[in-house]
Automatic annotation (TrEMBL):
<feature type="transmembrane region" description="Helical">
    <location>
        <begin position="106"/>
        <end position="124"/>
    </location>
</feature>
<dbReference type="GO" id="GO:0042941">
    <property type="term" value="P:D-alanine transmembrane transport"/>
</dbReference>
<dbReference type="GO" id="GO:0015190">
    <property type="term" value="F:L-leucine transmembrane transporter activity"/>
</dbReference>
<dbReference type="InterPro" id="IPR001851">
    <property type="entry name" value="ABC_transp_permease"/>
</dbReference>
<keyword id="KW-0029">Amino-acid transport</keyword>
<comment type="similarity">
    <text>Belongs to the binding-protein-dependent transport system permease family. LivHM subfamily.</text>
</comment>
<keyword id="KW-0813">Transport</keyword>
<keyword id="KW-0472">Membrane</keyword>
<dbReference type="Pfam" id="PF02653">
    <property type="entry name" value="BPD_transp_2"/>
</dbReference>
<feature type="transmembrane region" description="Helical">
    <location>
        <begin position="228"/>
        <end position="247"/>
    </location>
</feature>
<dbReference type="GO" id="GO:0005886">
    <property type="term" value="C:plasma membrane"/>
</dbReference>
<dbReference type="GO" id="GO:0005304">
    <property type="term" value="F:L-valine transmembrane transporter activity"/>
</dbReference>
<feature type="transmembrane region" description="Helical">
    <location>
        <begin position="280"/>
        <end position="299"/>
    </location>
</feature>
<dbReference type="GO" id="GO:0015808">
    <property type="term" value="P:L-alanine transport"/>
</dbReference>
<dbReference type="GO" id="GO:0015192">
    <property type="term" value="F:L-phenylalanine transmembrane transporter activity"/>
</dbReference>
<keyword id="KW-1003">Cell membrane</keyword>
<dbReference type="GO" id="GO:0015188">
    <property type="term" value="F:L-isoleucine transmembrane transporter activity"/>
</dbReference>
Length: 306
């Protein structure tokens, strides 16, 4: 294979891996703090992307045409609104079911995802058709043979990396992160130490949902297209990445995201009819890895309670 084309696949794989990792981090945060799987996570991502898109349309309508200001507005509204939605979901759907069987929370969040998806399809103007997401980043590119590196790809990769680093610093280097880790390790002891359990849960769900919205905007900026069903596949892949990396471990979620993207890229390069089989190949390998390592590649650290 041509080296330039191989480099193109590597860049594409890194972009996918960054988006998958951001989605997987949300699943890991939710499970780590409350031991729940929020299956509406992918659809929250989709709603955040549409919120950002609507912000762009609104800014354009009132005459704001500066791309940087539009980008900032899109990110602030998308991330902020989905952080709020994530906290609302935690407060009114997840916490009330805390003592119920886990299947109840799974079903409620699964149904919520369907509600969000169908609401966009039915009530958003022409919501059943794909939307052209604006190009708000520089469009310059650099070519070396058959390899082309786009400026927007570099910016998106750096932005995604900064978000992942920021989440890692918040969890491991701040008092809020210490409280989140304390609740994740032992809820009752954390309460006895004066930690506001409900507030930590709300903030954690807000954080995970906001990060997912950022991933959705990344997806829109990279592919310049969004649709009401985009969160379904991204949610499944993000959840698979969190599982294969080690559910409850942020580093495992990041590893799982890039692993899944690498498998898709490998499938696209090595398999015949690549576009048709790359997802099948990636999921098949992930199934094999989970069968081999049921706890994930990086198992969550647990402590025995006595």
């Amino acid at each position: 294979m041509d080296v330039g084309l191989l480099g193109q696949f590597v860049v594409n794989g890194m972009m996918l891996g960054m988006m998958y990792a951001l989605v997987a981090v949300g699943f890991t945060l939710f499970f780590g703090v409350l031991d729940v799987i929020k299956f509406s996570h992918g659809d929250v991502l989709m709603v955040g992307t549409f919120a950002g898109f609507s912000t762009y349309l609104g800014m354009t309508a009132i005459g704001i045409d500066n791309a940087f200001i539009q980008l900032v507005g899109v990110l602030v509204i998308a991330v902020g609104s989905m952080a709020t939605l994530g906290a609302i979901i935690a407060r009114y759907l997840v916490l009330p079911l805390k003592s119920a069987p886990p299947l109840n929370t799974l079903l409620v969040t699964l149904m919520l995802g369907t509600v969000l998806r169908e609401a966009i399809r039915l009530f958003y103007p022409d919501g059943s058709n794909p939307k052209h997401f604006p190009s708000l980043l520089p469009t310059e590119s650099w070519s070396l043979g058959s390899f082309t590196l786009r400026a927007d790809s570099v910016i998106l990769l750096i932005g995604g990396l900064l978000v992942i680093i920021g989440v890692n610093v918040l969890i491991n280097r701040t008092r809020l992160g210490l409280a989140i880790r304390a609740v994740a390790q032992d809820e009752e002891t954390a309460k006895c130490m004066g930690i506001n359990f409900k507030m930590i849960v709300l903030l954690t769900f807000a954080l995970g949902s906001g990060v997912a919205a950022f991933a959705g905007v990344m997806n829109g900026l990279y592919y310049n297209e969004i649709n009401f069903g985009m969160g379904l596949l991204l949610g499944v892949i993000g959840f698979s990445a969190a599982i294969v990396g080690g559910l409850g471990n942020i580093y495992g979620a990041i590893l799982g995201g890039f692993l899944f993207a690498g498998l898709q890229t490998l499938g696209a390069v090595a398999l015949p009819f690549a576009s048709a089989y790359k997802d099948v190949f990636a999921f098949a390998v992930v199934i094999a890895i989970i069968a081999w390592r049921p706890t994930g590649l990086i198992a969550e650290k647990t402590s025995e309670r006595v």
